[in-house]
Amino acid sequence: MNLQSILSSVLDEVYEKNEYPALAALESEWTHTRPFDGLRVLVATPIYRNTMTEYRALVAGGADLLVGFSEFNDPDVVDFMREWGVPVVTPAEMLEAESRGEFVDLVLDCAGPFAVLHPKIGFVELTRSGVHYYKDAEKPVYVADSGIVKRIETSLGTGDGYFRGLEKLGLGGDFEGKKLLVFGSGKVGSGIALQGVRRGCNVTVVTDLKRGQSQTANSENAEHSATSETMPAGDFSAVLEQNGVDVVDCHDYAAVASLIENSDFVVTATGVKNALAAPELQKSLLSTSAVLANMGVEDEYGETVPAEKVLNDKGPLNFILEEPTHLKYIDTSLALHAALAERLVQETATLEDGLHFPPQEIEQRLLTIAIQNGVIGPEICSMLGGIPTEMD
């Protein structure tokens, strides 16, 4: 059996194609076009069963696959990939390989751990939090999180994952009337907040209102330029307020401290390390009876708050789940991750070094496939109708 068939033997027993329509379309196309023939492709998405769908699409396209080891993984999936001969590698191991003259062609990264490598063609970064690792990149870098597609995962899937995490720990059930405090008004924070509204929570979001105003001005002036500063983080305060969510400025420490002390649930989703480490907030964080959680890759609470005070020891709460984010919500993100790798190959002779937005035609194609053929088509349409996009 070849690797594509081996992966199919697992995936086809678990998923229907309407849960991953975009990746299914790429796999079908690439089986014939083989855009990655002869290329070594390192993929560093978190190693879970659902991300094997991206591996399969790339292998169908001819990729010689390597999997980048992540701190977030399912050990059984890691073992499975190794058993079938797929290298599961760390950044240090890859740097050692480079010292022997062994380079990969493409790096499909997630949160930046493999930004230290020197691929022959370039990088695709999946997350906003990984962008700063590429600010001085000497190769082309497509940033999947700078476009609209990633919003399906972060606005719909991550909010769902937060509440499923609570439920797995026996902290769910009836959320009606519960006070939910969310730090961050970007894609992830707004997704959690709106999911909380749908579940009957009284939701307040804490954000940097001045930064949100500054981003709006910057996005109007930046046009199509792409730097680590102009890559849009997104702020949806206005949308949140339209949905009955109270929005509070993070610099109003007295108000924020009071909210922490009186909430039932507190969750961080700013993507910023030590975002809550201000001395004015530490006492409230240490004394509150609220259930504390984090949904970002960084420790947003700061060193003063012990890990045991926060669910999953400050790691992203949804990563306690077998599927941190349901495949139906990450299909388009993973498909964009892979499709941008194909575009790098196509443009290898002309694309300039540095950061690049995803081409709109690729995003629109994947969105159309997901809406027409995906089980969450109606959810995507509802999201796009209620949340502004960088394309507007």
Automatic annotation (TrEMBL):
Residues covered by the S-adenosyl-L-homocysteine hydrolase NAD binding domain: 157-324
Q: Gene3D superfamilies recorded for this chain?
A: NAD(P)-binding Rossmann-like Domain
- Which InterPro entries does the UniProt record give? Ado_hCys_hydrolase_NAD-bd, NAD(P)-bd_dom_sf
Q: What name appears for this protein in its UniProt entry?
A: Adenosylhomocysteinase
Which organism does this record belong to? Fibrobacter succinogenes
